[in-house]
């Protein structure tokens, strides 16, 4: 939009801060300065493996205390925000309140982070965590796929939205205890089978994924078992490297 047109548009339809409702000055997006600052940012010091917030002096080269003993099929997981407060409210409104337009806001937060940290340049292909078709039908969209679209558009990366499929609906991760989560997702994902040869292969992104570095996108990193299972399936199918990016991550500490 041309600057003068945007100024006129904003005069007629002033954008409000998504957290406090205050009318935003021209040039600000989504949040007023105070609410943006007040978002539950993970911060500068996070675990280089699982992305959990870590203390300034924590030794995390091999992972943090929470993830050191775990094996991941992905190399690294990152998230700009903690899954709490305003971040949690926005994600719930997006998913359960079915406000698909929030994909733009949450996608912006994720993209700013990926761009700022240089990670957007370390990947070749964007793959969303799939939703079971039944849940997608009741919600109307897959939140991860909408976020992946934002990431793909911002960094001009190809998206393989149909590469992975969810074989069965899993119980919501948050409803399960830690130990049962891994078992809950095992075998839940698969690479979409090519039924009619090459063309479908290409549509699903199977050929594009071979040997590539994939950015796996989801809304929330809870225990990591969902993205880990997706990463395992991708690696098995010939993907060279998997990075995980979510808007928020649960913090147990
Ligand atoms: Zn505000
Ligand atoms: Zn960690």
Q: Gist?
A:
By secondary structure, the protein is of the alpha/beta class. The chain has ten helices and seven strands.
Structural commentary:
With 253 residues, the protein is α/β, with parallel strands linked by helices. The chain has two domains: 1-38, no CATH class; 40-249, Rossmann fold (3-Layer(aba) Sandwich), CATH 3.40.50.2020. 36% of the residues lie in helices and 13% in strands. It is built from ten helices and seven strands. The protein has helices at 3-12, 33-37, 85-95, 102-116, 133-139, 143-155, 178-185, 198-204, 206-209, 225-236, and strands at residues 76-78, 81-82, 125-128, 164-166, 189-191, 213-221, 241-249. The strands form two sheets. Strands 1, 2, 3, 6 and 7 form a five-stranded parallel β-sheet that branches. Strand 6, helix 10 and strand 7 (241-249) form a beta-alpha-beta unit. Helix 4 (102-116) crosses helix 6 (143-155). The mean pLDDT is 89. One zinc ion binds next to loops.
Helix content: 25-40%
SSE run? HHEEHHEHHEHEHHEHE
Low-confidence stretches: none
Proportion of residues in extended strands: 5-15%
Shape: globular
The number of strands is: 7
- On the 0 to 100 scale, the average pLDDT is 89
Mind telling me the C-alpha Rg?
A: 19 Å
Q: Helical segment tally?
A: 10
The assigned CATH architecture of the largest domain is: 3-Layer(aba) Sandwich
Q: Within the CATH hierarchy, at the fold level, what is the topology of the largest domain? A: Rossmann fold
Biggest pleated-sheet summary: 5 strands, parallel
End-to-end distance: 44 Å
The figure for the number of domains is 2
